[in-house]
Specification:
The complex is a heterodimer. Chain A is built from 2 helices and 23 strands. By secondary structure, chain A is mainly beta. Chain A folds into 2 domains: 30 residues; 278 residues, 6 Propeller (Neuraminidase). In chain A, the strands form 6 sheets. Chain A has a 4-stranded antiparallel β-sheet with strand order 1-23-22-21, with no helix packed on it. A 4-stranded antiparallel β-sheet of chain A has the order 5-6-7-8, with no helix packed on it. The N and C termini of chain A lie far apart (88 Å). The relative contact order of chain A is 0.13. In chain B, a hairpin with a 2-residue loop joins strand 3 and strand 4. By secondary structure, chain B is an alpha+beta fold. In chain B, the strands form 3 sheets. Chain B has a two-stranded antiparallel ribbon with strand order 1-6. A two-stranded antiparallel sheet of chain B has the order 2-5. Chain B is elongated. Chain B folds into 2 domains: 33 residues; 134 residues, no CATH class. The chains are: A mainly beta, B alpha+beta. Chains A and B meet through loops of A and helix 3 and helix 4 of B.
């Protein structure tokens, strides 16, 4: 009798051992264990929703396979430039026309006469609205990457990310000045441009603003290249800019406020004309992770027009009522 | 008419001759396959390298564990699942990709307002990532491998905000090359694989074309 009990106990013990080993080998739950070194980026990508004053109004899906730039004209028509072509849509998103270009346009601007300025990697091309090439400017240099163009009545400003400089040209394309090159004597720090995101724009008051992306700053220059003022703070809070080369793009509202877009943490924000954080247009949740190249434009009704190169569309944000 | 004894003798002689022929053929064939080219060094592109018996070639055919940074999701298990303490997985810095940023996403904790080396600002739990001023506004970041535990926090921060120049790799000067790597067994993204010991690194962004051909896009 005693021997029988001993055998049964031994068998139960053996069974338990087999069960434990099976569980350990095949049903390991290590994937459910919390990560003691978790770095949660979600908190950084979210924000106080009361700061979000804009809502998405409509989307325009492009037929181009690769898009890089968006602009508006005086009639609020929307221009999308990319690889191999330019598309034009009405303010309501109705397709108007398309014309083909040779190569990739990395940026686009439309002047008051509806001439279309395209930054074609290392040179500028000017087209008319009918899709006819008017002129092609000579390249500033082999390493040039024209990433932004701004046009006034008399001057054209080009941001060259390859050479890390801004050019002031006349309307015929003749280079007059180089702006923003490192000049300690005149307290110009020089542009730090680690990747081809280097934007500039003319504010409603007529002043020239250039992003210094490596310093996370906006720099205001006179047309002859004198540094007037700067603003911008490098930090990871909503008020600051962080990551590599941010803000990547910007545009102006009619009151002189800055609309900025960033990569890394994909977000679009508004700052006052003095550089104080004002509100949010869109946060990371609105974009695919890793989206970069969120080019911006603003139309006459202060709608914020955002190029989404991953979803291949233009997204229009309007102020909440 | 030959008798049975003569027939058997002939058969045995014939078999011996055939055996000798086969043996010679096999030896000649084997010599050719071994890559006996007369050199005492190994050539990377040599067609006989698969069969080369030189020590260097043997070493390059030995397989070791490595993790692919393009698959890594920085789950933290490299720090906790290695049989070694601290882990044989360390952060490595691909300097060619680094932007030398002042505000480094791999170095600073979110919310840091003053960009200095104060302990409360640092993301690394072991102070393994070092920051050194180069020139305005550039800073160099180096890794103290003795302190690094392979948790991947800095890798995640660098990838999210920067160029992704901080990457995790198995360091073979300390990895004991387990037959079944316990990190690989628990890796949720299947980032671990066996690679030749002669070429044991799997670094992201090295030798790939840049977006514009001129400037790296990040």
């Amino acid at each position: 009798m005693k021997q029988k009990i001993f055998v049964i106990a031994a068998l139960i013990l053996l069974l338990c051992l087999i069960l434990f080993m099976t569980r350990d080998l095949f049903f390991s739950h290590s994937e459910n264990k919390p990560n003691p070194y978790e770095y949660d980026l979600k908190a950084l990508k979210s924000a106080d929703t009361t700061q979000s004053l804009y809502t998405e109004d409509r989307q325009i899906h492009t037929r181009l396979a690769e898009i890089h730039g968006v602009a508006t004209d005086a009639a609020d028509n929307i221009y999308i430039a990319g690889n191999g072509g330019v598309e034009i849509y009405s303010r309501d998103g109705v397709f108007l026309k398309k014309f083909s270009i040779k190569g990739t346009a990395r940026c686009i601007t439309v002047d008051v006469k509806d001439n279309i300025y395209l930054g074609m990697e290392d040179h500028v091309e000017i087209w008319n609205g009918s899709g006819k090439l008017i002129t092609q400017w000579t390249s500033p240099g082999e390493e040039s990457i024209i990433t932004s163009i701004a046009v006034t009545d008399t001057w054209v400003f080009l941001a060259d990310a390859g050479r890390k400089v801004v050019y002031r040209c006349d309307l015929s394309g003749k280079m007059i000045d180089r702006i923003g090159e490192k000049d300690p004597e005149n307290k110009i720090p020089g542009f730090i441009v680690p990747s081809p995101y280097f934007d500039l724009g003319i504010a409603p008051d007529g002043s020239l603003w250039v992003v210094n992306p490596g310093r996370h700053e906006f720099e205001k220059y006179t047309f002859d290249g004198r540094l007037v003022s700067t603003w911008g703070e490098a930090n990871m809070t909503m008020e600051g800019f962080c990551g590599c080369c941010n803000p990547s793009h910007f545009a102006f509202l009619h009151d002189g406020s800055f609309v900025t877009s960033e990569k890394g943490i994909e977000r679009i924000k508004i700052y006052t004309s003095g550089g104080k954080f004002n509100s949010i247009v869109a946060l990371s949740a609105s974009f695919e992770e890793g989206t970069k190249g969120l080019d911006l434009a603003v139309d006459s009704r202060d709608r914020v027009i955002v190029l989404d190169p991953v979803k291949l569309m233009v997204r229009i944000f309007v102020k909440k009522k | 008419m030959p008798d049975r004894r003569e027939f058997l003798n002939t058969l045995i002689r014939g078999s011996i001759l055939a055996g000798l022929g086969l043996l010679s053929g096999a030896l000649i064939f084997r010599t050719g396959k071994e890559g006996d080219c007369g050199f005492d060094f190994t050539c990377g592109s040599c067609s006989k390298s698969k069969d080369c018996k030189l020590p260097r070639a043997l070493e390059s055919r030995q397989m070791v564990w490595q993790l692919d940074p393009s698959k890594c999701i920085q789950c933290g298990r490299c720090a906790t699942n290695c049989v070694l303490t601290p882990s044989a997985v360390k952060c490595v810095h691909v300097y060619a990709m680094c932007g030398y940023c002042d505000l480094c996403g791999g170095y600073f904790k979110p919310g840091t307002k003053t960009l200095n080396t104060a302990a409360e600002n640092q993301l690394c739990p072991t102070n393994a990532l070092k920051r050194k001023f180069v020139e305005d506004p550039f800073f160099e970041y180096t890794i103290d491998e003795l302190l690094c535990i392979g948790c991947g926090k800095c890798v995640k921060g660098c990838g999210a905000f920067g160029n992704g120049s901080l990457q995790l790799q198995v360091r073979h000067d300390r990895c004991v090359n387990c037959n079944q790597c316990s990190i690989a067994r628990n890796c949720p993204s299947g980032a671990f694989s066996r690679v030749p010991a002669g070429n044991p690194s799997l670094l992201k962004g090295m030798g790939t074309e840049t977006e514009t051909g001129k400037l790296k896009s990040s």
